[in-house]
Amino acid sequence: MSCVLGIETTCDETACAVVADRRIVRSNVIRTQIDLHQKYGGVVPEIAARAHIEWLNDIVAEAMNRAAVSPEDISGIAVANCPGLVGCLLVGVSAAKALAFAWDKPLIGVNHVHAHLYAGCLIPPADATIASASVAASPPPLPALGLVISGGHTSLYEIKTFSSLRRLGSTIDDAVGEAFDKVSAILQLGYPGGPLVEKLARGGCADAVNFPLSLLGRQSLDFSFSGLKTAVLYHVNGERGTQRTSADLSAQQRADTAAAFERTVSEILEIKVRRAMETITAKSLIVGGGVSANELIRGRLRQLADAAGIPLYLPAMEYCTDNAAMIAGLGAELLEQGYQADLDLSAIATA
Ligand code: KG4
Ligand code: ZN
After folding, report:
1. Could you identify the atom of ligand 1 that is nearest to the CA of residue 151?
2. Which of 154, 213, 245, 254 would bridge with 171, disulfide CB 3.0–4.6 Å?
3. pLDDT at site 40
4. What are the residue ranges spanned by the domains of the chain?
5. Phi, psi of 341 (to 5 degrees)
6. What is the mean pLDDT of the chain?
7. pTM (predicted TM-score)
């Protein structure tokens, strides 16, 4: 059994994982920094990088222990080296280089956004022995259509192989997760906003408010969410000059707003995925990123894939948001394809 160690420090999660045979998660350790950043309403890069430095050694040791492996069992060290906060990336990349050098193992640089798509291919430990009956038991048939919906990215890809992804479209302003976070702030729910907006939306009527569907051109595969966010802001706070806030709305009005926003987002995603399916030949649909944890969106994408007659690969809940198992898994896949980085691997902030 070949095991790859993965390290993830692109933003505010310090994470390390061990994945066997490219898909079977042996350990997946994540320490979130939400408590450190909550009072600032968002991630403070300096604080995030410092926490990665303080925590990473322990997290790596824990991932190795939980997987019950020693350095001899590891066939490569994968690290997310782009995109992300550069100070944070540097911590993970430096640690991965040190381990690769000390243990004399290949180093693999992994694109964090591409890894979100690979998350749908991972088999959680509990399912590892019974997975033969499920879709996840076999790797996704390629070429696939990939949709990344995270806090930093919203993009569609044609995936010919996991080392050859062609971006078909992406957001021209806010990412979809960012829109969830901003709507959460408008509704005074807290951070990170996605799960809180989803919870509030459960008690709301999705048709109570009609927010605009921003689709850009008729053929466009790009996304735009800033208009929707502004529409929610005006709906809650009133037009410019009024003093209203979400505290002035009834509990039902707040829930209706969250539900209508969530419905609008899912309709936009559905329309764009359908357009992309008409543009390329896809044998499967692969979705990843924090927003893919959203039940309404998962359900809509499931219906879409069923109607198109192709399998849908959605990550298990624990692999939707940032984690290192997806980095280890994609790293193992790339290593298998012959990709290996030198010890001068760079940390790159942009995709
Ligand atoms: O993929 P991720 O962990 O980080 C990035 O790479 O950006 O995504 C985080 C985003 C946040 O914006 C968060 O609000 C959103 O994913 N998110 C959700 C849900 N869970 C997390 N959005 C909607 N519904 C959820 N259940
Ligand atoms: Zn991410």
Report:
1. 7
2. 154
3. 84
4. 3-136+318-336, 144-310
5. -95, 160
6. 94
7. 0.95
